Each structure stands twice: as structure tokens, then as C-alpha cells.
């Protein structure tokens, strides 16, 4: 699935930048045909590494003079209103590249991203028919009540306008004792790591195609409400390992390919997801197993799928495999989806999937 990415605010811009890097240099290239970073703080835009300078949009200069909105959503609204024209101009220029969906990314607790995202999403919803997904970074508990409130307001505003929301909870992933910058770097890496696999599994060009390909429609059908992603990698047997069969083996080496595939999926769904959630309450799941072609075992895949079906609330599990030649690991990715509440914030959403009539009336209004 090829996604047009718009990162808003500091967290949004950084995560978008990291995903764009993977799309350019990672195992799944071309998943991000375009990426824009939008911010009211000039310094944040200067700190990005991959998104091209011309695609970094500084908005609200007359309002905040390039200094950010200091967690104030009212000022965030002004900035977004001032910047909307230039943002949409940039999006329109870019959408000539084919995209299957839009991916808007923002930190929920701030002012620029948390207020800018609903404004931009609403406009894209009016103009384009492609699904819109949102990746939201939840502030940690210790970031305080203002950030929690900002998050709740942002989520309520986008309720009904997006097709799905992927949450990443800084509270679960925060790194004590590390400089903030390093901590954010690690967290962004954890958040972005599973996304190229999910988005790129069905975008195989010349490489070997999987037995069961996960395409854009599988992702669209699986992603609704609040979602969380888990990812796990197990070392696979390389040709060298097979040659040196007498070498001392670890417990993972001794797993059969079927067990390795099953374990990778099970670990992804249970060990550490992007946020705390109860697997039994997920309404849908998407699972992908990736690795060298010889290691992708269909018996292990089916076993993992049955296990996942038995865990979640309804047995709606989609999935597939993604052969990657020359790789020395087996990776499992699981997205648990269809949640309507975030208990930690006491926020719930009603209707994340936009009703068709809403889209039709938006077009009429144009
Ligand atoms: N995971 C992660 N969280 C971040 C990062 N940068 C900021 N955050 C978090 O994102 C939330 C919002 O902060 P910002 O992104 O700076 O907010 P903003 O949208 O730029 O808005 P203002 O700073 O108020 O103008 C807070 O919870 C931060 O802790 C990042 O790189 N990674
Ligand atoms: Mg900021």
C-alpha cells in the first residue's frame, strides 16, 4: 500500500521523516511516494534528515514567528487555518503520484500536531476519496494533564473523519535515564519498524511474491478504530549455519521453521505492542510473516492464524507472507484493531470509519 505521508508538529515530522528513510533505503522501497512535514516551529523542521527541504512547510509565521505554539491548541487552530492553503497546495501537487491512502502523523499532546491534524484531515476528506489513516503518539503520564487533554480533544475531533488510528504510547516505550533526543530516536525506530513490512508486503516488484499476498485491501479491511502494532524478529538458519551443523545451537536455532513462524507471530502479538491493550478485545487482526523464502512455513503460518483467531473477540484475521531473499531473520508483525477506548485517558470514539453519505455531502459542498 502506497501512502502519502503528512507529518505535523515535532513528533509527526520526525516519525514521517523516519518512515520516509525506510521507503528510500529499507527492504520495502517506494511505500511513501511523497512525504510532507508541517510545523510552526522552524527548528523542528531544520532537524529533519530525509524529507526534502522543499517539502518541509513552515506554517503560521505571522502568528508565532516560527517558534511553535507551546501546547496551546487555540493558537494551533490559528496556525492551521493560516497554513491550510499552502498545505493543501503541496498535497495537490504531490497526489499526481499514485497513492492508495493518506497517512497523517502527529503527537497528540502538543498544539501544532494535535490541532493541525484534524484541520488537515478534514480538508483531505473533502477533496480526496482515498482512505485516511492517522498515527497518533500518546503522551506519557508524566507529561501532565494538559497533554492528556490535548490528546482527548484531538481524538474526538478526528473521530468519524479517518478510517483508522494507530496509537503509539510514549508511556509504554519511554526510556528512563536517556537524553530526550536519544529516547525519542529509539521510540521512533520502534514505531516505524513494523510499518514498512505492513505497507510493503503486497508491493513486491521483481522479488519473489508471497504465497498469500497482503494487499492494500487487506490492510484497509483490517484497520479500523484504535489499533496497535507488534513486531518480533527471530534469527533464521543461514546457509552458513547449515554448513556448520555441529556448532552449538541456541534454543531458537533448534526451533523448526513451522515453530519459528508461529513464535514470531505470537511474540509480535503478545510481547510488546505500541500501546497497552487487551488482545481479547481486538475486533480484527492483520498478521504478516516475513523472511527468507525457505523459512516461510505455511503450517506455522496457519497455526499462528488459528491461535490469533482464538485470542481476539471475533475471528476476523487477515494475513499473508512476504519472502525477503538474503535476509537472516524471520519477522512477525501483528496489528490488533477495532478498539474504541483508551482506558488510560478515559477516551472513547464512536465511529471511526466515515460513513459514505458524509463523503458524498463533502463533495456536494465543494
Ligand atoms: N515518540 C515520540 N514522541 C515525541 C517526539 N517528539 C515529541 N514527542 C511527543 O509528542 C507530544 C507532542 O509534542 P510535539 O510533537 O513537540 O508537539 P507539536 O505538535 O510540535 O506542538 P507544539 O510543540 O505545541 O507546537 C509530546 O507527548 C512529546 O513527548 C518524538 O520524536 N517521538
Ligand atoms: Mg513542538
What does this structure look like?
This protein has 366 residues and is of the alpha/beta class. It has 2 domains: 3-202 and 348-365, Rossmann fold (3-Layer(aba) Sandwich), CATH 3.40.50; 228-342, Tubulin/FtsZ, C-terminal domain (60s Ribosomal Protein L30, Chain: A, 2-Layer Sandwich), CATH 3.30.1330. The chain has helices spanning 9-25, 42-46, 61-64, 73-94, 112-127, 145-158, 170-173, 180-192, 194-200, 216-222, 239-243, 257-270, 298-311, 356-365, and strands at residues 3-8, 34-39, 56-58, 101-107, 132-138, 164-169, 226-235, 284-291, 317-323, 329-339, 341-342, 347-348. The strands form 2 sheets. It has a 10-stranded mixed sheet with strand order 3-2-1-4-5-6-7-10-8-9, sandwiched between helices. Strands 11-12 form a two-stranded antiparallel ribbon. Strand 4 (101-107), helix 5 and strand 5 form a beta-alpha-beta unit. Mean pLDDT is 90; it is low at 355-366. The protein binds guanosine-5'-triphosphate (GTP) and magnesium ion.
